[in-house]
């Protein structure tokens, strides 16, 4: 392997740390950046870490930081990210950054489409992909149509989740009644545009993800699918305990779709299987490495390494067959989800402990540097305690 190129990772969440861990196993030199709060929790001995300006509010300053680093490198570093803020930033300044870094993203208009939930749903429907009933409310008539069509409870989701969560740290808002929707929609709308959507029945295990890596010429270099077991928060959240699982039907849906929209680079789509009709229904697309991507390495398809090889023109062999049954566990989130489900859904301690059986990939823990795991667990537990006090 030619490892003369360093790697630069923009993101020190569990997502970015998963990228760093995989690269460190290959003894690749790594530089990692994130904004101050994320840097304090996620900084790791496995990389040269620094806080950086915000990609949302300090674009020019962040660009200067990266270009300064790039100019010091003998060979162009490979640029990675696991967060939408940085995806938008890199895409926006791709011309300037490509002079100093190696990376592969879809065209900017494709990125804007798939990160905008309203446009992404329209795109999916255009390609005959089933979706949950979804409404945009711009006036009283739209509100009336949504109320008459939807069954309650339903959910509010931000159109641009990465921007909405900077103001209101929620992935979705549960709406129990039509009266609540009418009362709360204007308040949440102040934080960003929203869609109103039906809730597809079924527990966390009905969620599936499909990931792909297409090269510049839309040749498929990697594919992977997984099933959620638990997520955090338990109702509307991100993965806490998942398992690698080949789902051919979803490859049949996603591969033609991604090719049609030229979704090159690394991307992931989420679906929920509707128990009412057995149909997989589209939830969202992320044009980047996703939270649980580190499972791919344990399951025999290392997206992080394949991306490095491809960007440095080392012609990786396509990896299209995965090992099923490998678990990915974000320990503190899995524990907090268990506490919630123990009360609401009857999840027992035995159920919780059985989740550790078999081959595993830990989301954060690394014997080479356990401190990001310790800091993240502490932060999650403190926040859970504060939220519990607020509820009293």
UniProtKB/TrEMBL annotation:
Keywords: ATP-binding, Nucleotide-binding. Residues 121-312 form the ATP-grasp domain. Gene3D superfamilies: ATP-grasp fold, A domain, ATP-grasp fold, B domain. The keyword Nucleotide-binding applies. GO terms for molecular function: ATP binding; metal ion binding. InterPro entries: ATP-grasp (IPR011761), ATP_grasp_subdomain_1 (IPR013815), CPAse_ATP-bd (IPR005479). This is Carbamoyl-phosphate synthase. The lineage of its organism: Bacteria, Bacillati, Bacillota, Bacilli, Bacillales.
């Amino acid at each position: 392997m030619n490892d003369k190129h360093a790697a630069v990772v923009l993101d020190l969440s569990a997502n970015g740390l998963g990228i760093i861990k995989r690269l460190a196993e290959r003894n690749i030199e790594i530089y990692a950046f994130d904004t101050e709060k994320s840097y304090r929790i996620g900084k790791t001995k496995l990389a040269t870490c620094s806080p950086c300006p915000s990609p949302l509010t300090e674009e020019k300053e962040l660009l200067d930081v990266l270009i300064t680093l790039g100019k010091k490198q003998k060979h162009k570093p490979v640029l990675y990210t696991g967060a939408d803020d940085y995806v938008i930033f890199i895409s926006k300044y791709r011309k300037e950054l490509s002079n100093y870094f190696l990376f592969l993203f879809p065209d900017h208009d494709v990125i804007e489409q798939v990160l905008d939930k309203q446009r992404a749903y329209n795109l999916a429907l255009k390609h005959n992909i089933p979706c949950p009933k979804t409404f945009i409310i711009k006036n009283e008539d739209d509100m009336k149509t949504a109320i008459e069509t939807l069954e309650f409870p339903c959910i509010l989701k931000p159109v641009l989740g990465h921007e909405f969560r900077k103001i209101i740290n929620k992935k979705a808002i549960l709406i129990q009644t039509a009266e609540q929707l009418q009362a709360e929609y204007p308040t949440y709308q102040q934080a960003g545009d929203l869609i109103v959507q039906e809730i597809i029945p079924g527990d966390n295990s009905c969620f599936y993800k499909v990931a792909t890596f297409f090269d510049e010429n839309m040749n498929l270099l990697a594919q992977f699918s997984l099933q959620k077991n638990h997520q955090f928060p338990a109702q509307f959240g991100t993965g806490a305990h998942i398992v690698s699982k080949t789902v051919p039907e979803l490859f049949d849906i996603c591969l033609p779709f991604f090719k049609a929209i030229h979704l090159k680079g690394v991307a992931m789509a989420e679906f929920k299987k509707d128990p009412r009709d057995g149909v997989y229904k589209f939830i969202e697309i992320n044009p980047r490495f996703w939270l649980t991507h580190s499972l791919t390495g344990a399951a025999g398809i290392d997206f992080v390494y394949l991306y490095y090889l491809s960007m440095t023109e080392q012609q990786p062999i396509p990896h299209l067959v995965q090992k099923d049954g490998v678990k990915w566990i974000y320990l503190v989130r899995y524990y907090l989800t268990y506490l919630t489900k123990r009360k609401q859904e009857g999840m027992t301690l035995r159920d919780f402990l059985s989740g550790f059986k078999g081959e595993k990939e830990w989301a954060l823990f690394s014997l080479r540097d356990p401190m990001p795991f310790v800091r993240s667990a502490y932060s999650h537990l403190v926040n859970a305690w504060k939220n519990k006090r607020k509820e009293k």
